[in-house]
Specification:
mainly alpha, 13 helices, 63% helix
Length: 395
């Protein structure tokens, strides 16, 4: 068993209580942030910059033609890996909070409060995008983007359900089978839809003397959101296997649970490709199993890296305030730096012998270092900005 507890930095001052921190987890979260920043700029400038396939979305890199599914790369897993971490940390937070208060309702209030705030951010992000759009007025037909399909909305939904599951089921095995069972159900529905076996005679109702058939046009979006929920629940299962509420780590379960799961899901991902194509826009079994397998391998790798005292300095500041960096990157990197600076002044794809080097610096290095420079002071003074609901200790 092992544990890591970060002490308050200023002796004699109790401005912040001691927190349980895992350096290896901050490192893993940091690499996810780097992947997020890379994929953002790869997407925005993929028609200009000559990018290698593994640092761009597969569907942006190559298109086989109409009717043929697009390929995916590691970058396409970025959002799902983020969701995996949301589920992992949400489960651990529930464990800590329940140990502190013994009240399920208080912990549920904390989980719901966090989800609600992220949904508010999702709405504000959608609203700003609508305001900045050239179209007149605000089009509310895209409401599902801030409810259950957009990135922030999916984070809120997945975190909420993963937290509730962790609160109800303390056993990691039960969480896993619940998430896996949901995955099987959504996979069957995906298969029926994609192979046109879905309801040849859809149900209908008579309204005002007219026949109105049921519409299932939103079902793929709902299934995709549920795919992310599955990832979050299984991420919470892994947290239940390897972490205890007091910060101790169950080393034995890395071998007994996590690594077999990682190998199993990577194999299942390969097998599922013969049944359904992986698609960046569909969190189906092909994508979710690849996400879970890769995430389990990576989280174990960073845990072992800390065991041999190896760490990548730039990752910890980014990972310690992961949600803050994620939100700042959506505003500063995407809206301000990419749209207002790089695109307005045509700084990308200038050509000449220096063009590719300049592209690498402006679209590859600067966005990452910009986020690092913003959060490094927070890291240095051990300041962690997070969404939290105050809960008094039962003692």
């Amino acid at each position: 068993m092992s544990e890591e507890v970060v002490e308050a930095p200023n002796k004699g001052k109790e401005r912040r209580k001691n927190r349980i921190r895992f350096e290896w987890l901050d490192q893993f979260r940091g690499i996810v942030i780097v992947l997020f920043i890379v994929q953002t700029f790869a997407y925005m400038f993929s028609d200009i910059i000559a990018l290698p396939p593994m640092v761009n979305h597969g569907y942006k890199y190559i298109n086989f033609g109409d009717g043929v599914p697009k390929i995916i790369t590691l970058i396409d897993l970025g959002q799902s890996i983020f969701i995996f971490l949301v589920g992992f940390m949400q489960a651990f937070t529930v464990m800590k909070r329940f140990q502190k208060t013994d009240s399920r309702w208080k912990v549920l209030g904390h989980v719901a409060f966090r989800a609600l705030l992220v949904w508010v951010l999702a709405f504000l992000h959608w609203l700003i995008a609508e305001i900045l759009d050239d179209s007149p007025g605000i089009n509310f037909s895209g409401w599902k983007g801030f409810v259950y399909t957009g990135t922030l909305a999916v984070i809120a939904l997945s975190g909420l359900i993963a937290g509730i599951v962790a609160l109800i089921f303390k056993n990691g095995d039960v969480r896993f089978w619940l998430g896996f069972g949901l995955m099987i159900c959504t996979t069957v529905l995906w298969y029926l839809i994609e192979n046109q076996y879905w309801l040849p005679n859809p149900p209908y109702a008579i309204v005002g003397g007219e026949i109105v058939y049921a519409s299932f046009e939103r079902l793929p979006d709902i299934l995709s959101s549920l795919g992310h929920v599955e990832v979050a629940i299984i991420g919470g299962a892994i947290a239940g296997w390897v972490l205890n509420a007091d910060g101790t780590i169950n080393d034995e379960n890395w071998k007994k649970r996590v690594l077999p799961l990682a190998f199993g899901f990577m194999t299942l991902s390969f097998v599922s490709w013969f049944i359904q194509w992986a698609d960046h826009h569909k969190a189906n079994m092909s994508l979710t199993t690849m996400t879970i397998g890769f995430s389990a391998f990576m989280i174990f790798a960073f845990y072992k890296m800390q065991k041999v005292n190896f760490r990548i300095p730039i990752l910890s500041p980014l990972g310690k305030n992961m949600l803050l960096v994620f939100l700042l990157s959506m505003v500063i990197n995407e809206v301000v730096y990419a749209d207002m600076v790089l695109k307005n002044f045509d700084l990308i794809g200038m050509g000449g012998w220096y063009g590719p080097i300049l592209d690498l610096i402006l679209a590859g290095v600067v966005p990452i270092m910009l986020m690092w420079a913003i959060v490094y002071p927070l890291h240095k003074y051990n300041i962690i900005i997070k969404i939290s609901w105050p809960i008094r200790s039962k003692n």
